[in-house]
Write a structure and sequence with these properties.
By secondary structure, this protein is mainly α. Helix content is 57%, strand content 8%. The protein has a domain of 67 residues: Arc Repressor Mutant, subunit A. It is built from three helices and two strands; from the N terminus they run ααββα. The chain is elongated and about 60 Å long. It starts with a helix and ends with a helix.
Length: 97
């Protein structure tokens, strides 16, 4: 299975914040504290837009565990649907040739 670099980067960011216990405004951490490089912030913006990464004052962030779980389940469901489609298409092609 081929996994894209943005997907790996997203997972690394989430894992680092979770590992450091940044799961509430009180325990929020700066990217440097968890060993993450914000760079241009595109991935951080995407995670914030999905409600997974929440920002606090002082350039600190924390993970909303419920939102992260919902996003994981949604991505898994989409993957299963695509996989079923590919299998069905392969079956149709195989039976007609």
């Amino acid at each position: 299975m081929v996994v894209s670099t943005p997907l790996i980067r997203r997972n690394v960011i989430i894992r680092r914040f979770l590992t450091m216990g940044a799961v509430s405004p009180e325990t929020a951490k700066a990217p440097e504290e968890v060993g993450s490089f914000k760079g241009l912030g595109v991935m951080y913006e995407r995670l914030e837009a999905r409600g997974i990464l929440k920002s606090c004052e002082g350039n600190r962030y924390y993970i909303d565990k419920a939102a992260a779980l919902r996003n994981f389940r949604r991505r898994r469901a989409i993957t299963i649907i695509i996989l079923c489609g590919v299998i069905a298409l392969s079956y149709v092609i195989a039976t007609h040739y």
